[in-house]
Amino acid sequence: MEVENNDNTAAGGGGGSEIQSVIPSMTNDKVEERAAKKKCDPVSEPGEAQHSENNDKSTGGESEITSVLTATNEKVMPELTLVLVGDTNSIEIGSKNILFDQTNVEQFSSKLYDLCGRHISVINMLGLQNIDKFPLNREVHAFLLLLTNGLHNSQYSSGVQWLEKAFGKESLAYLMTVVTHKSDEECESAVTDLKVYNSFAEKRYHTCTKSMMDEREIIALLEKIDVMVSENDPHCYGGLMCDDNKEQKDLLDHKSQEEERINSSVSQQNQTGTNMDEDGNKDKQSVNISKERNRKEQAEIETLLSRLHLQDKYEKKLTPGDFLKIGPSVKQHSDTSEKDLAHTFLQKLMMLDYRARYIPVKQDSPEMSHSMCDPVFDTVDTEDIDLEALLSTSVDSNQPKQSHVHPMDVQMAVFHCSDSFLKQNMITKLSRCQYALPLLVPDLVTMDIECPLWTFRQIRKSWKITQTKDDSNIVTMKSMPICKAETSMVSFFRLGSLSVSKSQLMSTLINDRHSTFFHRNSPGSTKSRHLLDGVAEIAWYCPAGKPNDAFTDCIAFCNLHGDAVMNEKQRKILTEKSSVNVVLFPTLNKSDQSTTVVSALLKSPKPLICLIVDNDCGAVKIKEGKYKMGLKDRSWSDVSEELKGIIGKLLSEPHTSFQLETMAEVSGIKVDEDDEVCKKGKCAAMKIVNLLKEMDVSKIKDEYLPCQGKLWHDWCKINKEQYHLKGEEGETEKAKKQQELERKRQEQCAASCSKLIKLFIESLSSLPSEEREYFLKWIHILIDALSTDDLSSILQKYDEKWSEVLDLKKKHDKSDQLISKQTELEKISAKLQSATFGLEHIFREIGQIYEAHKSLQEQTTMEETYWSKYPELAAELMISGHPMELMDGDAGHVPLTWISSLLDEVIKKMGDQRVFVLSVLGVQSSGKSTMLNAMFGLQFAVSAGRCTKGAFMQLVKVSDEMKKDFQFDYVLVVDTEGLHALELAGNATLHHDNELATFVVGLGNMTLINIFGENPADMQDVLQIVVQAFMRMKKVKLSPSCVFVHQNVTDIAAVEKNMDGKRRLQEKLDQMAKLAAKEEVCDAECFSHVISFDVKEDVKYFAQLWEGSPPMAPPNPGYSESIQDLKNFILSKASQSKGTTLSQFKSNIEDLWNALLKENFVFSFKNTLEIAVYRKLEVQYGNWTWTLRSKMLTIENQLYTSIENGKLDKVELSYLHQEMSKTYGEIKKGMTTFFDDDRDKEMLVQWRGRFESKIKEFHDEQVEGVKRKLDEVIQQKNACKKLDDKKTEFENKLLQKSKELAHELKDRAKNDEELQKQFNRVWSVWVTDLTVNIKSIEDIKLEDDQFTILRGLGFEWSLIDDSKTCGNYKNISVTGDYSHYVNPKKNQSLGYKSQQCQENEKKKQTQEQGKWDKMVEYVENKKEQMVNYFKGSLSCDERKMIRSFIEDIEQQSLNAIKSKPVATRGYSPTYLQEVAKNVKEIVTEFESKSKYVLKKEFTVDLLLYVFDKAASWISESHKKFRMNNDALIYLESKKMQYNNIFKSFCKGNSSAVVFGELICEKLKVSTVEAVCNKTAIDLAGEMRCSFPAFKGNRLNLEKHVLKSLAEKEDFDGFINYIQRPRSQVESFIKEEVKRYVFTEHKDKALNIHKKNVEDINKLVSQALFTATEKVKAQRGDTDMWLKEFSSLLNDELTFDTICAQNFSDINKFDFLKEEIEKGLPSIIEELSSLSLGKMKEFRLRPEQILIDQLCNCCWVTCPFCAAVCTNTLENHSPDDHSVPFHRSFAVIGTHFRESVEMCIDFCTTRVASDTSFYINDDSDETLLYKEYRKAGPRFANWSITPDGSKLPYWKWFVSQFQKQLEDHYKLKLKGLGEIPEEWNFSKADAIKSLDEMC
């Protein structure tokens, strides 16, 4: 019965056997395997009851044992007891039902046993039977409420009511709901229906078929039951026990608890072997009991893992990725539930909170909570009640049977359930918390001993060794990976159970203020623990080099948990490895196993210290190296001090040392590094490390990583220099710099094939992910170990030399010795830099190889695959959580090409995710990296001194459960090097710090400003840098936020002190803001004007990091709390931010760095992403305006037709608005959608209001413009009304006369020729009769008028004739030089002071005066020579001024001419006379303000030029006037029409036939106009949408214009573009339309034309049908038919009136319709065959429509190079004018003063230099180019930023057209203006460079 009781305890009390197995041997697959095995061999496990008849066949002693167990089923206690409740129809009970195949009340289910090998009792209470039938004294693990699908709602309600009534409310905690269904039924909706009940729990819900024959369904049900049982406490429901049985159960529970308390003595039975009897045979009963105990231990472990919710993590391990994410925050001061213990432990540990071991636990179940109340004693109410309560041992208590989880069980459970990388992180953090680390760990299943050597690899320890030499102490510092350290090791063991704590004693030895080893008196300790016994932990004591050090060198202390007698293997390993062994035991008996162990240790040569716990003797030396000491009645401090002395003495003598790495050589244990994947990773790493062995570490980078050394540093230096040019030869110098840059890249390419990189890339790209992770870790570990000794040596030398320099400085020694020492110190520092070698340097080299090859992509012969895959490899690592270098700290430079490609690959792999960028800034060694690592579980490098160089970035994912709270997917953390670098000095430090601060602040959505200490004076410099950085962000419209973090604050709890500190900080910030405002030229009185900042919220105080003095101090828990609070605050603020996309982040990096390379950040900053978004908005704006324009053109066309038809005499604005309302509404809706939904909406919002108002303005302008046009048409129509009336009269008379003549000649005319003669004879008579009193309008003679006007203004005939004959006046606006038009004014200086003259002017004033007088005399006496000198010497600005003056005159004059009513009233010479007079007056005024006189030739040529430009418009307008107002012209145009009518009548045709012909004749004219106008609109629309040059924004059009000019190599076209850009663009549009329509897309244009012809055909045919049918129905006449037909065409066709009276005899309208239809095909055919060139004759032309659309933009030109602003909006204030590519000054003929040498520089180069320009040509006042905005309005509104690109286009132009430019401007490209050789670009290069315009 003993075995039976044990089973009962396990099943009922401990709950071990009913918990679902989580160890690999008990997975589902194993269950099935085990079930199969049971069917074949039911007696496979002793101690389990068997159901098979195989029992009878068993023989031997085993049969005797098992016979007791199998005598009766009733004696076997079930592992699970299940009660079936619910409706009887919910299950089909039968022989194949696995769960229940009988109808009796209770059964042991044999089928369940066969299925899973478990004894499960099933009690049938279906049909809601009477409770009396329920067997008493049964513990129920689960009530299965069976519900029929479809009736589940009602059955659930009644079932729960019955269960609660029958078994009590507590039974509901054990309820499992099962919905059963037929095999062909679906029951997915059942769970949704049941959720309405409060008692229903979805995780305790299952579905299966009624037959219950499916094994998988039943296994799944049992798994859910096991989970439920594990969660319930107690595990089973015992509500129906009688009192007697309950007492018995309590007794059993008590025994079970007693067993738990002493389980340490039997926990390792499988290791120590089994008991033997006297004859040497195994004691079978002992074996059986041992197996039962092991089975119980395994069940307890399973229960433990289940309680910690780690049951599924033993096989599917936890990974670092599970914790390297933003998850729910850890609550600092609240209890944690058991299920969250493991997660909370790890989170706290990652934050370096050593209290992770002491997490308060709250009970999950109400029963457990209730049990925490005070116990009640069974006492009687007497006077001695208090005494009895104290004496009584009987307690009526509801204390839980299950104690809370032991803290070390939590740690070890997490350890066992973690993968090797998380284990490594965990152990590294435990080490930083100064905790002992697991060295030997028994496997949970096999109990094999494992040494987790891998987990120690990242741990690095530093200590100081104190050695006495010549009566003085010498302190030497050591720092190395702990695996490599050779130290002494002291191992502690206990034998048997002791009353004292060995672990506590060890903790006092190492650190008496911190429990390095967890012990029984530590908070949270319990008597029961499951995973610690047999574990050996190790910790190191690291001395600080101080007198109070416990030991003078580093010592390892090892602690074997549990009884060393029982853990023999661990004991032997440790005693062999130890330098000193320490054993704790009670007084020994000879028969004890402990005696044997101690005896063996005494015989061993190893030093031994025996600590006897029940003996009070002092320390006694037994023999050499052997000591004993009693512990009884002694204080820990005394014991500790005495023990330290003994250990110190023993270790001072020769002894064996311990090195962690040697554990791999110990036989009989498993080392985690022997794992195949780990070995492969190490093997790949060793290939690389083997290359580096035996090398001087300081030479490794030069040998194997050459691209990142001098070559890269030189490249960076040259690259920065090209933005800080000096002298006049800017472009030449810049070209040389760029050539040097290219040469450096070529050298990098040549050096980029090192074996190390090849091996690294090969491994990185070929290894599977897990092996690759090991490979990278091993590389990091092995390289770190490689450089350890060298670095330590160099650091030691540096420290010594630094001390010597300080000593000399203290003595104020300024001798050569100090200089010599400082030089030596610099050399050591340089060597230290060279010796610093890590994984980041390999990645830096990869980046440089990529950049070099990428920049020379077209030149390099190396296969692209060699380097093009590098960004992809790096991106994979970055996504997996590896930090990547953002800024090279050694070079102080951002490798933009590499970073951009890397981020592109990241985006390609995981999408353009939104990230919240968190950056950190602060002084060096202020704990920035440590703070970030603790906050997010990162692994940025941390150590003393300057740890981080440059900047690193790392992605941290936002967990799925937290995503709902944030608008981004990742936090991107940017860690940076500290400010105030010791390696830098003076201005270099300040510049570097400013650069870094601006970069980091600009990148971050939030920046942590890390301040070390509390004194604002110490932080003043840092604050000034930070404030200036934020001010720069404000000026370039970036809006980051900041949080100030004060670290190392002594008392963070002192509120008053903190408030005072915040006040002082606020004052300092305000003060710094004022200083920075002066430097940055910004209005800011306080810091809050610069950035949104609340000193109460945005300043955090941190306690100091260490709790005590390093190296043995643990991290301060207050620091960890501060970290958690700060993290919560950051995330709270971040939740209000949308972050930024990765593509935006990439763009920010480029923009910020490009601006920082230049001298003035704010001045140079270009937000390329913002520019790109604005360009996108411009395209949308173009689309919106085109939609409005297109609709307006259609409306205008219809209304124009109506006006021409006389159907409309007034156009109302309201009508136009109404017609446009639908389209305008759609545009507004589209704008709203665009601004609200576009991915860049946050950036677009700044322009929303402006563009909405611009669209409204455009809409209103279009409406008002169309009204003006139509009003003019109406006005013109009214002006012609008299003639229109005459026209009707004429046509009536002509029709009548034609009819009469035809009747007269009907019989006499023989042929058509005769008829034609007769008609011609009478036609002139008719015209004369009709126009007898009307005077014809004469044609105009413009040339005669022009001569007359010019003569009238006083110009000589010969001068006018010469100019006219020469024809040069036609090119006056584009000529390169105007010096032949000017004469100097008297006494006016002819030359220009050079810059050098200006600088020396005051010194040489007297001398210069004499020269001045001679010059005047020279001018007066030799005028001809003076003119020749002056020729070609007009400055560029003067030429521009004259050209601009000509353009203004042209525009003013044309506007004046076009304002005249020529088309409505005719031409008058006075129009030209007014213009000429005005031009002459303006020329005189211009001349008065100039320093020269304009010759008469200039005025004559200018007037002729203006006349020439106006002539075409005047001629066209007058022609229109004559057509509309000259009766003779009108009548002549009708001759052919009436000739045809005449002939038709002569042929005897009826009125219907003639009328039909007349209709067709009028249709022919009007349809042509309608089709051409409609085709013009449609073609413009087609080209606007599909033609590349026209479908984008203004910049896109500019690119195509320049491309066209380059392809043609048309110099004259270039000059026209340079001097008259709009004119050239209009010419380009016209040319492209012509090419599109007549050549390249002729078919498409013809299809558009054809469609419009078909539409007109349909319109006319439908009008014919409708008019005819209506007249027939209403019995109308010809007049009615004509009105109806006309009205149907009025909106589309202009249709002249016809007098219906002449055709009143028509009554067969069907016949009329047929006659017209006969004529239609010829009209349509003629329309179809029309040339598209016919469009030019009509009102609407596609090229003009496109010009109106595309040229309605900004045309302001750069004041330096005349490049045209490319903004699509004409008025885009307040945005500056800008252009992506500026031009060489030579393009517009700029030259140096007093020289004919042209300047070839670009303004983008000049603004990066220190050169100056003359503000005005007639002034000597100069201004630095970089300060150009101060030069006046013309300059102030231009944004010209330094540009480091090659800009090939205009360089090609200057080089290609050198001769033409020199001839055009009469200047030379030589001397300072000589074209550099590097400008020898091809045309293809030039055109390709246009694609870079953005």
Shape: flat
Count of helical regions: 66
Secondary-structure content class? alpha/beta
Provide the residue-averaged pLDDT.
79
Report the sheet-strand fraction: 5-15%
Structure explained in plain terms:
This protein is α/β, with parallel strands linked by helices and 1894 residues long. The relative contact order is 0.04. The N terminus is likely disordered. The radius of gyration is 50 Å and the shape is flat. The strands form eight sheets. Strands 12, 13, 16, 17, 18, 19, 20, 21, 22, 23 and 24 form an eleven-stranded mixed sheet that branches. Strands 7, 25, 26, 27, 28, 29, 30, 31 and 32 form a nine-stranded mixed sheet that branches. Strands 2-3-1-4-5-6 form a six-stranded mixed sheet, with helices on both faces.
Topology:
Layout: H1 2-14, H2 28-40, H3 60-70, E1 80-86, E2 106-108, H4 110-116, E3 120-126, E4 142-148, H5 152-167, E5 175-181, H6 189-194, E6 205-209, H7 215-231, H8 243-261, H9 269-272, H10 284-307, E7 325-326, E8 336-337, H11 341-350, E9 361-362, H12 366-371, E10 376-377, H13 385-391, E11 395-396, H14 407-416, H15 420-432, E12 437-442, E13 449-451, E14 460-469, E15 472-481, E16 486-494, H16 502-510, E17 536-541, E18 555-563, H17 568-577, E19 580-585, H18 593-603, E20 608-612, E21 620-623, E22 626-630, H19 636-652, E23 658-659, E24 670-671, H20 676-692, H21 697-704, H22 710-721, H23 730-750, H24 755-766, H25 769-810, H26 816-835, H27 839-855, H28 865-868, H29 870-879, E25 884-888, H30 896-910, E26 914-922, H31 928-936, E27 950-958, E28 970-976, H32 986-1003, E29 1006-1012, H33 1020-1035, E30 1041-1049, H34 1055-1080, E31 1099-1103, H35 1117-1134, E32 1140-1141, H36 1142-1157, H37 1161-1164, H38 1168-1204, H39 1213-1237, H40 1241-1279, H41 1281-1305, H42 1312-1330, H43 1342-1352, H44 1357-1366, E33 1382-1384, H45 1395-1399, H46 1405-1421, H47 1423-1430, ...
Parallel strand pairs: 1-3, 1-4, 4-5, 5-6, 7-27, 8-9, 13-24, 16-18, 16-19, 19-20, 20-22, 26-28, 26-29, 29-30, 30-31
Antiparallel strand pairs: 2-3, 10-11, 12-13, 12-17, 14-15, 16-23, 17-18, 21-22, 25-27, 26-32, 27-28, 33-34, 35-36
